[in-house]
Design a protein that fits this description.
Largest interface: A-B, 21 and 18 residues
Number of helices of chain B: 3
Number of domains of chain A: 2
Radius of gyration of chain B: 17 Å
Structural class of chain A: alpha/beta
Number of strands of chain A: 9
Oligomer: heterodimer
CATH topology of the largest domain in chain A: Rossmann fold
Order of helices and strands of chain A: HEHEHEHEHEHEHEEHEHH
Shape of chain A: globular
CATH superfamily of the largest domain in chain A: Aspartate/ornithine carbamoyltransferase
Helix content of chain A: 25-40%
Largest sheet of chain A: 5 strands, parallel
Shape of chain B: elongated
Order of helices and strands of chain B: HEHEEHEEEEEE
Strand content of chain A: 15-25%
CATH topology of the largest domain in chain B: Alpha-Beta Plaits
Distance between the termini of chain A: 11 Å
Radius of gyration of chain A: 19 Å
CATH class of the largest domain in chain B: Alpha Beta
CATH superfamily of the largest domain in chain B: Aspartate carbamoyltransferase regulatory subunit, N-terminal domain
Largest sheet of chain B: 5 strands, antiparallel
Number of strands of chain B: 9
Strand order of the largest sheet of chain A: 7-6-5-8-9
Amino acid sequence: MKHIISIRDLDRGEIDGLLDQARRIHSHQYNEHALKGKILGLLFFEPSTRTRMSFQSAIARLGGTSISVDSVEASSIAKGETLADTIRVVSGYVDTIVLRHPKEGAARLASEFASVPVINAGDGAGQHPSQTLLDLYTIRQSMPLEKIHVGLLGDLRYGRTAHSLAHALSLYGATLHTITPKGLELPGGIAEELREAGICVIGHEDVSEVISELDVLYVTRIQKERFPDSASYFAVASSYRVTPDLFRSVRDHLVVLHPLPRLDEIDPRVDQLPYARYFEQSWNGVPVRMAMLQKVMS
Amino acid sequence: MNGDDARKGLLISPIENGTVIDHIAAGEALNVLRIIGITGTTQESISVATNVKSGKRGKKDIVKIVNRELRKEEVDRIALIAPHASINIIRNYCVYDKKGVETPPFVVGIVRCPNPGCISNTSEPIPSKFQVQPKGLRCLYCDWLITKDITSHII
């Protein structure tokens, strides 16, 4: 039984295989009945639009169906049931579970109690492997993944998408440029681990210092829901903003990504620039998640 | 018995049956007791000697536990905080078995994850689980890496 809990669980060959399969799916080379009769269980204990809907779209396009729990209030968790018991029960109803949960490690716990495959759709400030795969897929649409320069702008302390992406890029020999508000730097342990994996991690004060060197600019939202209190959130909120002026001297093939939703980190005028790929990135969630479902459910 | 021997005898008098944990780094004896689950509420008779002179390391701690032979998994936990400790199983005042400690690949239910957002710090029916790595202990749930002061995280 194959779970997908963390991008760390996948080696480079498996990642490349999933991205190749996503590309074939994107080119309509797939069996529309591949997962006919299969049921996907969506357990979302945190809000989600893109991840949940793209998984629903993915299973439907492969001929399967989905059933879901959309909030803690609508589930037996509200009655005090443990996640472990919920997972045991739901395992009997579905063929694969997709879980989003506010606690880090929740998907790993679920994989211990589930009798069907579990896909992590985000666990607190932890891992979000399907987002990482679609990030890589979107970059690979524009350039090879090897040895690229990637700027990570925003909340790198709590931003799970940035952590997962950084780890995945380490498999491809990327150079990472981190640009963060004070207090939201990449956790020391992660930065050290990345350096030990052989990649260069360089910190910058301002994105304008480094934009001309970048192949990819990955912007993240400051996630209010991850802060211990509102005072610490407001201390850093709105401390950076990507505007069209930033792109005066950049590489032609620069790609700007954002896992969305955005608040005011990216000026809407940037949407019109050829570098902006965050909506394509979001759409790519469907073929990438179709590839993931095929991998664990076929 | 000269004066030195007399004082030594007071510190580390022999036990008839049980376990002697020797060569613990000075000051770590109480943490060794914690990591093998011996607290003020358990029933064992315990002798603890701290800052005893040691030829090898200058000073060391010694723990003696009467009428209890430590199991291998208990012994291996000690390696996390006292990697040079030696374990002597005593039967009828004689050393029945003597061995070093080996770092275990995993520690389960012994150390609490310092990450407040980790699922292992909730009411879920799971013990904490860490993989022992060269740099420290990595939480198998949230990936948090404990690199120092492991003893302060012992449950």
